[in-house]
Design a protein that fits this description.
InterPro entries: aa-tRNA-synth_I_CS, aa-tRNA-synth_Ic, Rossmann-like_a/b/a_fold, Trp-tRNA-ligase, Trp-tRNA-ligase_bac-type, Trp-tRNA_synthetase. Its EC number is 6.1.1.2. By secondary structure, the protein is mostly helical. It is built from twelve helices and five strands. The chain folds into two domains: 210 residues, 3-Layer(aba) Sandwich (Rossmann fold); 87 residues, Tyrosyl-Transfer RNA Synthetase, CATH 1.10.240.10. The strands form two sheets. It has a three-stranded parallel β-sheet with strand order 1-2-3. The longest helix has 30 residues. The radius of gyration is 20 Å and the shape is globular. The structure holds tryptophanyl-5'AMP. Tryptophanyl-5'AMP binds next to strand 1, helix 1 and helix 6.
């Protein structure tokens, strides 16, 4: 059976981008068709300036939202990265296979390190090695597929390179995984800055739809989305990024196709109105279920405890095999 692994980082409240780009497919498709693991990658949240209490809170909230989005602990494994030591153990071995140059070429590293330096801050070493930990997440479970949005594809490509290199040097140890992306909404853009990704860690609130936004807040954000000069509703990501983003969001929420939908609208106003309502409807069941789950925190804790146990049992044999293959003396 195909094995699937993916993760979400608790550095901010989860967004419509996270949902349409990744989480919805995990719930609707992956958990039904594959042996699937979904991880709240809290160690990754420590790679940038962070408040310990907030990371803990966001980790719990992310777990609750994954379940609210439809992940079913009877069908898949949901767990927290730091509860399974194998991630950090394997990450070190992969650091001995990856190169400094490779890390510095990663787009997300360049962007985040650049932003940090521009603010006069310092860049944590773990930000540089971030993709290696991500590779460890994936390779520890022998995942065949990694369902992600566009922004994570480069990291999965690096994971493939590291797996192949390790296997060539030390013998066949890892499955070489591949990224899978959604057909639409693989890169949902910020509603106020349609040339930038809608990212949960950014601070431009009005351009970001959060999964827990009230319906009226969602409507306001979508209705105020920056569109392009011009009037015709055409689907052109280069020339009309704002309108293209709305068409993609609408298509992803209604199961349509952005090009076909562009022919339906004669004004930006009507497109925004329908998009706002479509988003509200998509988020409604998630928010309802989230409310129910918040009333039962013991349930979420239990899911994470069982999930970590299952994940540990799956990861340990592969990570132990990697320790032997690379030349470390078994503890006996
Ligand atoms: P993170 O937490 O930034 O995002 C979680 C998932 O949501 C997708 N995503 C988006 N998709 C479309 N449009 C957007 N605006 C948008 N924003 C986010 C991301 O592509 C991702 O699939 N490094 C990862 C977490 C991670 C991971 C892993 C993922 C750590 N280890 C192993 C897969 C496998 C991250 O920061 O995702």
């Amino acid at each position: 059976m195909t094995r699937v692994f993916s993760g979400v980082k608790p550095t901010g409240h989860l967004t419509l981008g996270n949902y349409l780009g990744a989480m919805r497919r995990w719930a609707d498709v992956d958990q039904h068709q594959a042996e699937a693991l979904f991880c709240i990658v809290d160690l990754h949240a420590l790679t940038v300036d962070h408040d310990p209490a907030r990371v803990r809170r966001l980790s719990r909230q992310a777990a609750t939202l994954l379940l609210a989005a439809g992940l079913d602990p009877d069908l898949c494994t949901v767990f927290v990265q730091s509860h399974v030591d194998e991630h950090a153990r394997l990450s070190y071995l992969l650091e001995c296979v990856a190169t400094d140059g490779e890390m510095r070429r990663m787009i997300q590293y360049k962007e985040k390190a650049g932003r940090e330096q521009a603010r006069g801050g310092s860049v944590r070493l773990s930000l540089l090695t971030y993709p290696v930990l991500m590779a460890a997440d994936i390779l520890a479970y022998g995942a065949d597929e990694v369902p992600v949005g566009d922004d994570q594809v480069q990291h999965v490509e690096l994971t493939r390179d590291l797996a192949v290199r390790f296997n060539q040097r030390y013998g066949l140890t890892f499955v070489v995984p591949r990224a899978t992306r959604p057909a639409v909404a693989a890169r949902v853009m910020n509603l106020q800055e349609p040339l930038s990704k809608m990212g949960k860690s950014d601070d431009t609130g009005p351009g970001i739809v959060y999964l827990l936004d009230e319906p009226d807040a969602v409507r306001k954000k979508v209705l105020r989305a920056v569109t392009d000069s011009g009037r015709e509703v055409v689907y052109d990501r280069e020339a009309r990024p704002g309108v293209a983003n709305l068409l993609e969001i609408l298509a992803a929420c209604t199961g349509g196709n952005p090009s076909d939908l562009s022919g339906v609208y004669e004004s930006y106003g009507a497109l925004k109105k329908d998009t706002a309502e479509a988003v509200v409807e998509v988020l409604r069941p998630v928010q309802e279920r989230h409310k129910e789950l918040c009333a039962d925190p013991g349930f979420v804790e239990g899911v994470l405890r069982d999930g970590a146990e299952r994940a540990r049992a799956m990861a340990r044999p592969t990570v132990d095999a990697a320790y032997r293959a690379i030349g470390l003396l078994p503890a006996g």
